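Handout for the seminar on molecular recognition.
Each group receives one record of this type.
Step one: identify the two inputs.
Step two: read the structure output and locate the region that could contact zinc ion.
Step three: write two sentences on what you found, then compare them with the reference statements printed after the record.
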Amino acid sequence: MSNSAVANLVSTLDTTRILDQASRARSRAVALGQIAAGLATPARRTRTAVTRARLDSSTRRLLRLRGASDARPSEDRPRPGGDPHLVLRGKLRAGNLRRDACRHVIISRGRGLTCDGCDEAIATGHVELRARFGDGSTKRFHSRCFSAWYTETQR
Ligand SMILES: [Zn+2]
């Protein structure tokens, strides 16, 4: 196509309308960009909240309790000092650990306090479970000790 032919073609087009459409498309793109930028922050916040909720969820804690794949391996590893469940069962047999129904279970991070089941400290990296009884008092357990105590006394 020769230059003059192109010039003729362009002159037949409604250049005003084309320029107007291009301008509208540009401002629409800018508006969409602003919307996308506005959505990025809440999306990031939602992702953070979902992650936090997942970490805090009782299902995940129960998975840890039950020794599923999610469990902290060190907590369920047998100790050289002997089976902590033996200590717990001995206490139950001797009547030194209550076996009445617990009303609530409070789950928190370990604070280095002694487990009422095995008499070992509940490390800060581990989960601490407190069984609360009708009289308001509580017993503190490692998750593994709570599982053993619960199985022996609450079923
Ligand atoms: Zn324990």
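Reference statements: The chain has six helices and three strands. The two ends are 91 Å apart (CA to CA).
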